[in-house]
Write a structure and sequence with these properties.
Structural class of chain B: alpha/beta
Largest sheet of chain B: 12 strands, mixed
Order of helices and strands of chain B: HEHHEHHEHEEHEEHHEHHEHHEHEEEHE
Largest sheet of chain A: 4 strands, antiparallel
Oligomer: heterodimer
Largest interface: A-B, 27 and 25 residues
Strand order of the largest sheet of chain A: 2-3-1-4
Distance between the termini of chain B: 55 Å
Number of strands of chain B: 14
Shape of chain B: globular
């Protein structure tokens, strides 16, 4: 991912509420590729979002996930033609609300942004695709 | 990123749009410690035991659904075959016990409670006879209770007396539940080679050698397999097609095993009763939902319709490929494992039956390679008991000789005949009443006694 473009994109998406500290926090979360941790730890979720691309999707979802107290450890987004795809991995050990509540909040946030958002425990993906 | 984009999309697509779900999460509960010579004591003990072990079953399953975003269609409980627990009871006591179990099922919020069962492949006790007398009323008076009777096995042969008796029970149950298109019969199944860890309704029971409480998972996913078959296209050869099904079965089995392990551990935590994870049953189970059909998978393999030449071969490849993919995914594969062909529950099959493409004879052939047998088939309500019995003898013979489980869930729809439709709603679906040959099997079925075990039984 082009870092310059990413930062610009986050700043655009958060405007007018973008301040350097918030943009940095989101960018840091996005760029935290350093330690894709054990896939069997049992405390991470995968958040996926799909829909037509528009401004503010990444920021909106990141705000919701961070606001719930989750630690975002990895983010990947792709835009194919006009379709937006986001995959985010977050630790839920420090989450302040239940997973069901987070799922509700993400659904609401997704509806406002025109994307479908799902949050599922990582073990499902690890089970299906890893030995 | 720890996962490739296509992997994540693959899983999300399965759970989101291809109807991949866990069909059944079934908690087996031993009632062996609930016996008593006093009927009211049996009832009280059974109720208390089910409440103690299974009261968190539904909430745990719902939490697991949310955690993984995988729907669990049915939450069920199976119990020790009831005749082993209550052998001294009278028919009236068996009916009362069925009502108590039904209340327990309602109170803990499950969909079905199975194991109102008898194992009579070699013969009947007095308790078994009382059980048969009680069955029609027990089914008519309850909503959640599922009954099954194991009438034969490769080792024992087939108890033809029990089969004829079961046929009569079917007709009586159909009459008592006539207002709902003989719905009671949808909760009654006859078996050959019944297995003790089947999570699927109506034939589930908690086998006598099972532990105190065990959680078995039945996965579903015809929609997922349909997509795999569609993706390889019509030009791919059989080997390529089977490989695609195997890969898909691997993934959904992994998901099923994960969910089973987690649910068992949580249930143990919540109830304080040791709950072990039993098995994943890999049976593909269709539903009336669009795109969730085993029949559609067979059509997608290249058949004009289910029932056409090639249907048995297509089903055999499907069953085998699912098993092969599944056994690579977990060592906990068990139950029936294959593909179900319940006519009313599969809209493509029901339609094929309505068009005359799928006949009972072809279905019988297909049951030699599917995971169970003649399932959810509506037949005319005026079918003689002897014809039903003989049809079951045919089906059970396939199981006995081939050392596989076969079953019959036939619904002789009271007051209806060929040209009519039976509609049960929900997952049970809608189906035309299928024609049977009007040839008499009266003298054959009335011979009774035991069909001797085949040479294959002598394996030691």
């Amino acid at each position: 991912m082009n870092i310059r473009r990413l930062v610009d994109r986050i700043a655009d998406a958060m405007a007018p509420g973008a301040d350097p500290a918030r943009v940095e926090a989101v960018a840091a979360a996005v760029l935290d590729f350093t330690s894709p941790r054990s896939t069997s730890g049992g405390d991470r979720i995968l958040i996926t979002a799909f829909g037509l691309d528009r401004q503010g999707i990444l920021a909106g979802i990141t705000n919701t996930v961070s606001g719930a107290g989750c630690n975002i450890v990895d983010v990947s987004q792709k835009i194919l033609q006009e379709y937006f795809t986001l995959i985010m991995i977050a630790e839920i050990a420090t989450m302040r609300i239940s997973l069901t509540e987070l799922q509700c909040q993400l659904t609401v946030a997704g509806e406002a942004l025109g994307v479908r958002v799902r949050a599922q425990h990582e073990d499902l993906f690890a089970g299906m695709h890893r030995p | 990123m720890a996962y490739e984009l296509h992997e994540v999309l693959d899983t999300v697509r399965m759970t989101e749009s291809e109807h991949f779900d866990i069909r059944a999460i079934t908690l087996g509960v031993s009632l062996r410690d609930c016996s008593s010579s006093l009927p009211q004591t049996v009832r009280a003990r059974a109720y208390d035991k089910i409440r103690r072990v299974a009261s968190h079953h539904v909430t745990v399953a719902e939490a697991i659904e949310a955690l993984y975003g995988v729907q669990i269609a049915n939450k069920r409980v199976s119990v020790t075959p009831i005749t082993l627990v209550a052998d001294g009871l009278s028919a009236a006591d068996f009916v009362a016990l069925a009502r108590t179990l039904d209340t327990a099922a309602t109170d803990i919020g499950i969909d079905y409670l199975a194991g109102f069962s008898a194992l009579v492949q070699r013969g009947m006790t007095r308790g078994d006879a009382a059980y048969f007398d009680a069955l029609p009323e027990a089914l008519a008076a309850t909503r959640h209770i599922c009954a099954s009777v194991n009438c034969g096995s490769t080792r024992a042969g087939i108890n033809a007396d029990a089969v004829l008796r079961l046929a009569k029970v079917l007709l009586e149950t159909a009459r008592l539940t006539a207002k709902e298109d003989s719905l009671g019969c949808t909760r009654l199944v006859g078996f050959c080679n019944a297995i003790p860890n089947n999570p699927f309704i109506a034939g589930a029971f908690h086998g006598p050698s099972e532990p105190e409480a065990v959680l078995n998972v039945g996965i579903s996913g015809p929609g997922v397999v349909l997509r795999a078959v569609r993706d390889v296209g019509l030009d791919a050869d059989f080997g390529t097609m089977c490989e695609a099904i195997k890969r898909t079965a691997f993934k959904i089995t992994r998901a099923g095993a994960l969910i089973g392990r987690k649910a068992a551990a949580r249930l143990h935590e919540r109830s304080g009763v040791p709950v072990s994870f039993g098995i994943v049953d890999l049976s593909l189970a269709p539903t009336p939902k669009e795109g969730d059909s085993v029949g559609e998978v067979l059509r997608c393999m290249g058949l004009e319709d289910v029932g056409g030449a090639g249907s048995t071969a297509a089903l055999s490849m499907l069953t085998e490929s699912i098993k092969k993919g599944g056994v690579m995914a977990t060592s906990r594969v068990g139950g029936l494992s294959g593909a179900f062909i319940p006519v009313s529950e599969d809209p493509v099959m029901a339609r094929a039956a309505a068009r005359g493409h799928l006949t009972i004879d072809k279905l019988e052939a297909m049951t030699a390679v599917c995971s169970v047998g003649l399932d959810m088939i509506a037949v005319p309500g005026d079918t003689p008991a002897e014809t039903l019995a003989a049809l079951m003898l045919d089906e059970f013979s396939i199981g006995m000789i081939n050392n596989k489980t076969t079953a019959c869930r036939l619904i002789p729809v009271h007051g209806k005949g060929v040209g009519d439709t039976a509609a049960w709603g929900g997952l049970l679906g809608t189906t035309p009443v299928m024609p049977l040959k009007r040839l008499s099997s009266k003298h054959f079925a009335r011979r009774g006694g035991q069909i001797p075990a085949p040479i294959r039984s002598l394996t030691n």
